[in-house]
Amino acid sequence: MIQQFADWLVYTAFGLDANTHLGVALNFFVYDSLKIVLLLFAISIVMGVVNAYFPIERLRNFLTTRKLYGLQYFFASLFGAITPFCSCSSIPLFIGFVKGGIPLGVTFAFLITSPLVNEVAVAMFAGSFGWKVTSIYVISGILLGMIGGLVLGKLKLERFLSDWVIKIQQMATAEQAEWETEHKTFMERLPIIVRDAWKIVKGVIIYVLIGIGIGATMHGYVPEGFFTTYLSGEHWYAVPLAVILAVPMYSNAAGIVPIIEVFVSKGVGIGTALAFMMAVVGLSLPEATLLKKVMTMKLIGIFFGTVAFMIMLLGWVFNTVM
Question: How many CB atoms lie within 10 A of CB 278?
Answer without folding.
Answer: 30
